[in-house]
C-alpha cells in the first residue's frame, strides 16, 4: 500500500450555497455514500492560503501575534494570508504576505509542506514555505488595518518553539505544522532536499 493521498470525488445529487461571505462561503452537498444512501455535508468553501516560516541566521523563526476572534485569543503565528486572486502563484502571494506583515524579504524559498487545515468541514488548502536569507524590506511599511494594527513581533529560536508546541502553549495550525516540519526535514534529507518554491500544487493549481 502506498501512503499517499489521491483525488476522488463521490457523486453529488444536489448542491446549494446558503451563505456567501466576503472571502468564503458555505456549501451544502447531497453526497452518495458507498452503500447508496445520500448524506448532506455542509462545509466552508475557501480560496486557499499561504504561510511563511521565515528562519533567520540565528536559527530563529519570525513570529507575529494577533487577535483571532473565532477562538477569542491572541495567537502567535507565522506570516500568512489568503490567495485572493484565482490562479495566483502561491510563491508571489507568500512573498507579499512576508513583506506586508513583517516588512521582510527573503533570498531563499522552498516548499516546507502542504496541508488541508480542517478537511472534515472546510476545503482550505495551505502551502507553507520556508524562507531563508532574511533582510529588511525596502520602502514604506504596508498600512495595517483591523486586527493587524495591534500585532506584536518576535523572533524565537526553533528549539524553544518546539517546546512551546509540545507544551500546548502555541496553537496556530501553520506555526505548529511548520516548525515540526522544519525539524523533521533537518533530521531527514536536509532543508536543501525540500521541494522547490515553484513545485506543483494540485490542491490549488497556479500559473508560473
UniProtKB/TrEMBL annotation:
Q: Which GO terms describe its cellular component?
A: cytosol
CDD domains given in the database record: NUDIX_ADPRase_Rv1700
MF terms in GO: hydrolase activity
Q: Is Cytoplasm found in the keyword set?
A: no
Q: Name one Pfam family in it.
A: NUDIX
**Which residues does the UniProt record annotate as the domain Nudix hydrolase?**
44-178
Say which domain of life the source belongs to: Bacteria
Signal peptide limits: none
Q: Does the keyword Transmembrane helix apply?
A: no
The UniProt entry, under InterPro entries, shows:
NUDIX_hydrolase-like_dom_sf, NUDIX_hydrolase_dom
Task: Report the record's Gene Ontology biological process terms.
Answer: nucleoside phosphate metabolic process; ribose phosphate metabolic process
Q: Which UniProt keywords apply?
A: Hydrolase
List the protein's name. ADP-ribose pyrophosphatase
Species source reads Streptomyces yokosukanensis
Amino acid at each position: 500500500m502506498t501512503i499517499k493521498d489521491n483525488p476522488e470525488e463521490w457523486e453529488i445529487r444536489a448542491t446549494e450555497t446558503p451563505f456567501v461571505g466576503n472571502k468564503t462561503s458555505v456549501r451544502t452537498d447531497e453526497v452518495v455514500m458507498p452503500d447508496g444512501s445520500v448524506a448532506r455535508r455542509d462545509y466552508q468553501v475557501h480560496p486557499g492560503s499561504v504561510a511563511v516560516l521565515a528562519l533567520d541566521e540565528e536559527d530563529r523563526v519570525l513570529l507575529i501575534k494577533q487577535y483571532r476572534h473565532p477562538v477569542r485569543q491572541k495567537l502567535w503565528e507565522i506570516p500568512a494570508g489568503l490567495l485572493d486572486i484565482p490562479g495566483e502563484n502561491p510563491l508571489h502571494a507568500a512573498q507579499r504576505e512576508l513583506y506586508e506583515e513583517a516588512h521582510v524579504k527573503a533570498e531563499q524559498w522552498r516548499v516546507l509542506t502542504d496541508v488541508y487545515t480542517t478537511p472534515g468541514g472546510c476545503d482550505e488548502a495551505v502551502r507553507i514555505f520556508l524562507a531563508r536569507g532574511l533582510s529588511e524590506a525596502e520602502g514604506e511599511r504596508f498600512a495595517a488595518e483591523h486586527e493587524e494594527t495591534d500585532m506584536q513581533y518576535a523572533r524565537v529560536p526553533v528549539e524553544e518553539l518546539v517546546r512551546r508546541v509540545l507544551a500546548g502553549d502555541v496553537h496556530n495550525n501553520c506555526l505548529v505544522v511548520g516548525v515540526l516540519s522544519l525539524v523533521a526535514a533537518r533530521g531527514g534529507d536536509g532543508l536543501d532536499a525540500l521541494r522547490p518554491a515553484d513545485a506543483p500544487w494540485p490542491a490549488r493549481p497556479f500559473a508560473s
